[in-house]
Specification:
The protein is of the alpha/beta class and about 190 residues long. The protein contains 8 helices and 8 strands. Strands 1, 2, 3, 4, 5 and 6 form a 6-stranded mixed beta sheet that branches. Bound molecules: flavin mononucleotide (FMN).
């Protein structure tokens, strides 16, 4: 149980940075690690465990992240799997009153208006049984041009412009602690039945 594949879907690099840091920690804890973008990761290959993370935009994971999980669903269901979302920007006025549930704050409600992105996550979760889905604070640089037409249009909305705080809010201690937890789980001898 020592080869870990860390896959990420990122538009502007914040999620890539989180994936790379998770990879660094897993390596320093003695695991063999490959970090790859979701659109270039051919498959799960010979990995013994997989970590998949995506940036969240308007309540949804990026398609690359969802597609990677869907095309590897059968194998991932058999492997230890961890998911992470890179999303919330603290102080964003798009955050309504915090719900107490990080997934709801990043991806929206489980049901009703605005639940489309969350439902996709519920589907992949039901199919692959991840051990955990962690939400990490993200980063936003307004000077970094939009990479998708939808993002360009959304950023032009005055309400969104006001709502998105600029800055790098990634909490490296939180990210590293989670990566150490993953390493500990993978390196623990299996508990005999
Ligand atoms: C137009 C726009 C919409 C966003 N929508 C959400 C959202 O719905 N939920 C959330 O948690 N974060 C949202 N964010 C924050 C990003 O997900 C966060 O900045 C993330 O770390 C970016 O990752 P990347 O650099 O890997 O693309 C949004 C950011 C932008 C610019």
């Amino acid at each position: 149980m020592n080869k870990v594949l860390v896959v990420y879907a990122s538009r502007h690099g914040a999620t890539r940075g989180i994936a790379q840091r998770i990879g660094d920690v897993l390596r320093s804890d003695g695991l063999e690690v490959e970090v790859a973008p979701a659109d270039h990761a051919a498959g799960v290959g010979t990995a013994d465990a997989v970590v998949v993370g995506s940036a969240v935009y308007m309540g949804s994971w990026l398609n690359d992240g969802i597609d990677f999980i869907k095309r590897n669903e059968v194998l991932l269901a058999e492997l230890p799997l961890w998911l992470f979302s890179s999303g919330p920007l603290p102080g964003s006025s798009m955050d309504k009153v915090p719900s107490g549930d990080p997934l709801t704050d990043a991806l929206g409600p489980e049901q009703g208006p605005g639940s489309g992105g969350r439902k996709k996550i519920a589907e992949i979760t039901a199919a692959t049984y991840p051990k955990d889905h962690r939400v990490f604070l993200g980063a936003f640089d307004p000077d970094d041009p939009p990479t998708a037409t939808s993002e360009r249009l959304v950023r032009m909305l005055p309400a969104v412009k006001k709502a998105l705080p600029a800055g790098d809010f990634r909490d490296w201690d939180d990210i590293e602690a989670w990566a150490h937890e993953i390493a500990t789980t993978l390196m623990s001898p299996a508990i005999p039945a």
